[in-house]
Amino acid sequence: MILEIAGLTKRFGGITAVDDMHLSVAPGEVHAVVGPNGSGKTTLFNLISGAVPATSGQISFEGRRIEALPPHKRAQLGITRTFQNIKLFADLNVLENVLVGQHAISNTGIGSLVRWWGAKERAQREQAMDLLRAFGLHDIASRQAGELAYGPKRLVEIARAVASSPRLLLLDEPTSGMNARESEEMVVAIRKAADRRMTVLIIEHHLPVVKDLAERVTVLNFGKKISEGTPAAVFEDPAVVEAYLGGTTDE
Ligand SMILES: Nc1ncnc2c1ncn2[C@@H]1O[C@H](COP(=O)(O)OP(=O)(O)O)[C@@H](O)[C@H]1O
Ligand SMILES: [Mg+2]
What we know:
Elements: E1 3-12, E2 15-25, E3 30-34, H1 41-49, E4 56-61, E5 64-65, H2 71-76, E6 79-81, H3 94-103, H4 110-120, H5 122-134, H6 150-163, E7 168-172, H7 180-195, E8 199-203, H8 207-213, E9 216-221, E10 224-229, H9 231-234, H10 238-245
Helix pairs in contact: 3-5, 3-6, 6-7
């Protein structure tokens, strides 16, 4: 297993956002996390990336305990995440955003970085263009990221994350706010990312996307795992049907 979570709990004051979670993810798997709003999905990702500390429990990544490591150490180990809200370099163009991702820079000045590759690294540029082609973004490689429409912006964000060649990619609602065609493009792009042998954990509200993409699904409700298995099995599980008919989802 690339990721093993045992007894993981996160409390915010009186709220138990993640409650005694157990989860195992195999290398190369696309694993979806679904559940009603407020069920603890984003908090689970925050615990894995280190954005919030766990109240208790264990997280092992490639056999190594990481729950006490700061976020940048986990990033160095190959854990990359995207956010519910887009975070792009608005003044850089699409290609440059992906190149920044390749270098997975943190504190380096962006300007000097861009000059550096400009002088030096044609191969990296070619790799980045290949990635843009895979994501259907090559036609807008020179457009400024800040000027793009919402759907392409999200695709650039995912492309940038994939460019850093993470071992584990955490995608928080990548298709939120997208129309059907954009969602389909996103599915194709994520599948290509998974083909690069990265492990993908994806929070996703749209069940057709989950069925298309995920080999396994974990369903949360009130911070607890209520079901896990293949998409077909999970969405027929009476406990899942009941949680969804509870009426708190976006579906
Ligand atoms: N930083 C925080 N401080 C306090 N409460 C939080 C914080 N983050 C999340 N929560 C609470 O934890 C619960 C789970 O939230 P979240 O993980 O965002 O759910 P989901 O992503 O499934 O919609 C919610 O009740 C939410 O209000
Ligand atoms: Mg969320």
